[in-house]
Amino acid sequence: MTSLFKFLIVAFTGTVLGLAFTYYMLRSGVNFDEVRAGPWVRSPKTGSLEIDPYSQARLARTGQLPLGSAEGLNFFAWRDSTGEPLRAACTYVVKGPIPPTRFWTLSLYSTNGALLDNSAKRFAFTSSEVLRDAAGNVEIAVSRDARPGNWLPIGDVPSFALVLRLYDTLFDFGMSKVEAAALPQIAKVGCQ
Amino acid sequence: MIWMNRFFAVLLYGLAILFVAGLVHIVSILIMPRLAPHDAFARFAVLATPKQPFLLPQPLPGHEITPFEDPAVAEAVCMFDITQAPFHVGANLGEDALVTLSFRSRTGKVFYSMTDKASVHGKIDISVMTEPQLEAAQANDDEDNPSQELRLVAPQMQGFLLISALAAHPSERAAAEARALSIECAPETVAQD
Question: Which ipTM value was assigned to this complex?
Fold first, then answer.
């Protein structure tokens, strides 16, 4: 009787601990398939058959669909170039080189991937519609209040995420660490 | 000596609990893609129309089907089940507008992806099949006039094709949606023999 009781205690405690650890791993954003370049984070294997079990479990939970590796590359940013979290109370400027690609889009989401309503009804910029300076450089202001030029509005949330997608890119990063200099910076201009 | 026995007993139970916890953790992670009730496949299955692609609603706040949808892209989905017959995808994408395809398994693995640049003069001719179906198709091939179709062996019987057509400007959304829907996808009806 006592040994059965002990066995049940071990089985129960172990199961609870194991499930709690699974829950923690899927919620915490721990990612074993992660390549960083400045503020941008990329998961090179999630769009292929080599996806790791943790990424697959997380995507199954959220329903998120990463780009297939031949479709393009997606870069996520939850932090600015200095490593501070992206806060809606601040104004940021996304500027710098964008790797050669047939098409790119820059879109803004809540931290868990919802689009944010705003008065301008602007949720993303595509490489066709963005305004460029005389030298062809791109500069996009990300802020709550309207800005001249390219303005990506932040909705009514405390913090947000940016996603840069390079469709049909000519730039093959492979598994390499992408140089931060090859991607645009996310510079904080000021906070309210 | 009694405290030593106690110590080893506690250690043994601790290790047993850790062992069970590790096992439960690994199993739950591996089984998640099969059991998750709201994965992308389950969300699309509700909307599915047989034998043709169906358009996902335009990504707008509160109307997204999946998180992190690209608002500049019109997306359509074809669900497939190759238990009975291979699944055929055909398209004629003449113009130079970006369309990407990704073939995904029931549990969310991308097993093939491409853009319209990889098509032959804008033509796409792809069959998704099982290993035995592939062997049957190869046995039926005419040696002098080999089939031009691309044959993919799917890792699972069920899955879906995600079609993404880029709308470079918001005004081009209708055209992008039409382009995504112009792709034909259906189970192969006639076995070629």
Answer: 0.88
Q: Which residue has 């058959």 as its token pair?
A: A49
- The model's confidence at residue A156, banded by pLDDT at 50, 70 and 90, is confident
Q: For chain A, say whether B157 makes contact (Cβ under 8 Å).
A: no
In a domain, B192, yes or no: no
Positive or negative: CA dihedral A100, A104, A108, A109: negative
Give residues with Cβ within 8 angstroms of A21, minimum separation 6.
B21, B25
The pTM (predicted TM-score) of the whole model is: 0.90
Name the pLDDT band for B193 (thresholds 50, 70, 90): very low
* Cβ neighbours of A25 in B, within 8 Å: 25, 29
Taking the C-alpha atoms of residue B20 and residue B22, their distance in angstroms, rounded to an integer, is 5
**B54 contact A CB<8A:** no
pLDDT of B143 above 50: yes
CB nearest to B24's CB, from A14, A47, A168: A14
* Helix A53-62 / helix A2-27 crossing angle, nearest 10 deg: 80
Does A116 have pLDDT greater than 70?
A: yes
Classify residue B117: in a domain, yes or no. yes
Residues of the domain holding B23:
1-35
For the four alpha carbons of A48, A53, A58 and A62, in that order, the dihedral sign comes to positive
